[in-house]
Amino acid sequence: MPHYQQLMTIAAPPETVWEILENPIYTMKLYPDFLAIKVEPEGRTAAGQMRISKARAGTKLFEIRTVVSEVVPCKRLVLKESKGGAFTDFKEVIELTREKSATRLSASFDFTVSQSYFEGMNVAALEGAARSNMISFLKNLRELAELKPLR
Amino acid sequence: MAGTRDLTRLDTSIDIDSPRWSVWAVITDPSYFPKLYLDAISVQLDPPGPVRTGQRCTILGKVGKTRVEVPIQFTTVDRDFCLAHRALPGGLFAKWNQTVTLSPRGLRTIGRVESEYDLAPAYSSKVADIPTWNRVVSRNLLGYLPRVKEICELLSLPR
Q1: What per-residue confidence (pLDDT) applies to B3?
Q2: Which of A43, B31, B80, B159 qualifies as a cystine partner to A36, CB 3.0-4.6 A?
Q3: Is B19 part of any domain?
Q4: Helix, coil or strand: residue A117
Q5: pLDDT band, residue B159 (cuts 50/70/90)
Q6: Is residue B23 a contact partner of residue B148, using CB atoms and an 8 Å limit?
Q7: pTM of the predicted model, to two decimals?
């Protein structure tokens, strides 16, 4: 199963990073190929909440279905696959640790692209695109968390 | 693009290979907003729920490394035809009126966006490089319709 893992430091407190992670509307800015999202039930992230995202691969539009499986505010967020989407297996684990006024972030992604969902398409290329989105996710998360208000 | 010293006006249109209802679904789904405006980060609707006339919406965006807020209010929500909003006080714009109209052309749609805006003095007075900010805003507004087209013309999986 493809795996991606990264550690990084963000120059913002865990509360700021968490605010971005737990609000699903930020998803489209974090993952370059995500276009829209619906959450059930609506509102902030909670264990058991479904996330149905629309995403693109080239000229194709597809769905990613995940469920929030673990939420420890400002510390840990875990998402897993839900039946019927682009991944047969998916697990995203984000952990935050306070480091003075900054945040140490650990992220890991394990995923398997559904061959039946993407019948006839190049699965290796899709895995590459997924990995690229995960790398961008972390870069964008840092960029958003470190934005400054106009003074 | 034409404009006075402070007020900038934009008027663009595009041919979209997608039916009008489909385009309408994209432009009125707030979760698409961060994709339709390049530098929008998130949106918050007040009250939450489907877009409707009178509803307020706060768009959180960025200009370079600076966070900005753009509160708007929907002034016209005419299903499959017209979506208009105006800026509310307290954000990036002193004025931002935008009207999106959709016209059917067979199974295709002609989308048109008319915008006029100027930056709020509260922002203008704190920003050293006004032309850069204006360029960022124009780039976001001019990029709106091409992004709507790109999304609407994607082919859904599984077939």
Answers
A1: 40
A2: B31
A3: yes
A4: coil
A5: low
A6: yes
A7: 0.90
Q: Is B125 exposed, middle or buried (0-12, 13-18, 19+ CB in 10 A)?
A: exposed
Residues of A in contact with B66 (CB under 8 A): 147-150
Interface of A with B in 113-132 (CB under 8 A): 117-119
Residue B49 belongs to domain with CATH number: 3.30.530.20
ipTM of the complex: 0.87
Q: Are A14 and A101 in contact (CB under 8 A)?
A: no
B65-121 pLDDT, tens digit per residue, is 889 999 999 999 999 999 999 999 999 999 999 999 999 999 999 999 999 999 888
The range of the structural domain enclosing residue B58 comes to: 2-152
Binary contact (A28, B32; C-beta < 8 A): yes
Ordered structural domains, chain A, with CATH? 3-145 (3.30.530.20)
A52 touches chain B (CB under 8 A): no
Of B14, B21, B3, give the one whose Cα is nearest residue B148. Answer: B14
Closest partner CB to B42 (pick from A29, A62, A149): A29
A35 vs B30, B35, B157: nearest CB: B35
